[in-house]
């Protein structure tokens, strides 16, 4: 993981997320819809749905919105035909970018994403062109404030729960897991009394790539355009950026 910390990015994104709450709810509704449609409406037997519901609640999404998205997925004749698509490309200085989209109009989404890349110093690549630079991992963050647990104790808890790696800073413990073990690790840590500040299955860059100072603003604009698109659910990159 090359010492890469997701926590600063997550923390920095909270303020921006508050300003885009309606758009975030719309995207979460799509994800809930897809998880319920693909693997059933019961969170207890559908780990993907359970994880997205927890993510939605962490974003303060109303329960009515969650319930409505699940009902929509299980009501005959009422659902949209969404498909999941991953786009791969490059930002300025060859920074690797992965874009996960959930769309009911492939042409619209592809056009919007291509424009976001091309107008901001980037370019779309072929399937497989950058995905090999990322690992799919379960990610868990536990804040250290008011937590009287040292690194050795936490490491033992992580290993006993089935986690793969622990990274520690003054603010947070960051835990990485195999995606197949993610749900079990989360439950084991919660059973020990830990409060999970963040928990998701994500794409983690294997190494970080430097970006020239005169290209950074352009790259941030590209990321903003991608993340603001209604069809885009997640954007991952390997740029070595200081989070704002």
From TrEMBL:
- Sorted UniProt keywords: Cytoplasm, DNA-binding, Transcription, Transcription regulation
What Pfam families does this protein map onto? TACO1_YebC_N (PF20772), Transcrip_reg (PF01709)
**SUPFAM superfamilies membership:** YebC-like
> Which superkingdom does the taxonomy of this entry point to?
Bacteria
Task: Give this protein's Gene Ontology molecular function annotations.
Answer: DNA binding
What InterPro entries has UniProt attached to this entry? Answer: Integrase-like_N, TACO1_YebC-like_2nd/3rd_dom, TACO1_YebC_N, Transcrip_reg_TACO1-like, Transcrip_reg_TACO1-like_dom3, YebC-like
Positions with biased composition (Basic residues): 1-12
Where are the residues of the annotated region Disordered?
1-21
> Which GO cellular component term is one of those annotated?
cytosol
Enumerate the subcellular locations listed in this protein's record, separating them with semicolons: Cytoplasm
Recorded coiled-coil stretches: none
* Sequence similarity: Belongs to the TACO1 family.
What is the protein's given name?
Probable transcriptional regulatory protein SAMN05216375_10945
